[in-house]
């Protein structure tokens, strides 16, 4: 089976700093993982760890000044370094993206239906009315009642959940091989969150689409994902099947992250925290980026840890704890 | 494309409809009514005046207003009312066409500078800044000195003066809109740069330019009057409001009506344009709380 998304050593750097003191913020550093077609892969990490940058790099949405190295293959085609025209061919066609806030990711002056039709017409040679037909069918598929009523509505006339359904319909308009959902439920309340996740899951099964689900919410990961990647400060520290990750976290950061969930420690009055803070990514950091905050730090951590396989998990750590949770 | 923008406009209007519950302020209604009245009067000038604005009547030199000549007659015995009406025609035409031309050029320039940025932005913005450093009237007078006087040249000069202002407004507004997530969203679905600019960025960024253009129309009318007053704009015998001000200046004490009525017409037109601009600003303000 070919992977719908294969990342190999993907790194993203943003040039920054003053004149005479140029620096590069290393937002993503050597990330490798694959997502099989029909699989839903969760990418979890705190704000600023490079999750969204990774997604934008795959879609070619980063500014041209960005330094991207490594490889990202979508449905067996390299996407890093593609020309503008080739990127446009890919976007919304083989790979599509859903953003966090549907209220800002739809054009306020456009009827919502036309925004779906626009995506169809960007990639298929169909007439205006055929595009509208298809858009209406998609609106039905994402669970909007009365699509023909809703088609001409401006985004502000729809509820947050309905808007996100429109965005998903537009993303799926050309049956993409890969759907990147960047925090698709963060702006929604819990009930809607569950509905939208179910919708994404249902569409994934129906179309055999690979889904890269980006979130900082471990609860969302637990609900729908097959496998999970944990990111810290631009590096992928652990990849594991979802059940394995929750039952048997390996990397010290993953453990600390799980321990910091509310209710993770029964009877504890205060939430657990990870001491220290995320390193400044514009500084050159040798070795493991979590080392400065890691309770299991050893001398070897000054060298970037290699990824080792442990059962179904892959972990990047020199000093793995053995056995269960500490 | 056209049906698209009509729907878009309809949606914008529908969107602002609930806000209309507060009603437009009286001043806006007054401004719109006044402007409509002035434009109608200018269009219907031949029907309303009843006199030829260029006919000299030696018997009526500086004649006071009466039933036949409600605004009186000027130094050459010409009917002031018909001259004001025909002058208004020229003035409005010059003001509106110059701002329209400036807007038509400024919008794409600002759009390109704001959206693409980089060297393209530097090139466009710096070139426009060069126009902006020159004093407006001096720029107009220089151009007229080169090409020769006339209302077309005056209109062109005014367009060049307002071009950088309008382009700057469009650029700033484009910068804001380009950073909206729906622009990124549209890119992520494979829309071309041209499509994003024409369908998503331009319609959302044009509001402030329309407001600015309506306010500038008032100033353009004033500028045309100033140029004609100096003898650089509309040339006699064609009546113009500025030219009439120049004629009436010498007889201000003997026949004040020669001066007062064209001055009043200019003032009313400027007030109407700025009230309209103010109203548009409120109507197009996305937050709806502008005071």
Description:
The complex is a heterodimer of chains A (326) and B (291). Chain A is of the alpha/beta class. Chain A has two domains: 3-225, Rossmann fold (3-Layer(aba) Sandwich); 250-263 and 272-326, no CATH class. Chain A has ten helices and twelve strands. Chain A has helices at residues 51-59, 84-90, 112-123, 128-141, 147-150, 160-171, 190-207, 218-224, 242-247, 252-259, and strands at residues 3-16, 23-36, 40-44, 67-74, 77-78, 95-98, 178-182, 210-215, 227-232, 235-241, 307-310, 313-316. Chain A has an eight-stranded mixed β-sheet, sandwiched between helices. Chain A has a four-stranded antiparallel β-sheet with strand order 2-1-4-5. In chain A, a hairpin with a 2-residue loop joins strand 9 and strand 10 (235-241). In chain A, helix 3 crosses helix 4, helix 4 packs across helix 6 (160-171) and helix 6 (160-171) runs parallel beside helix 7 (190-207). The longest helix of chain A has 18 residues, at 190-207. Chain A is globular and about 65 Å long. The two termini of chain A are 38 Å apart. Chain B has one domain (25-53, 71-284): MetI-like fold (Orthogonal Bundle). Chain B has 291 residues and is mostly helical. Helices cover 73% and strands 0% of the residues of chain B. In chain B, helix 2 (26-43) crosses helix 4, helix 4 (80-116) runs antiparallel to helix 5 and helix 4 crosses helix 10. Chain B has helices at residues 2-16, 26-43, 45-49, 80-116, 118-132, 136-147, 151-178, 181-188, 193-205, 207-229, 241-249, 257-284. Residues 5-21 of chain B have low confidence and may be disordered. Chain B is elongated.
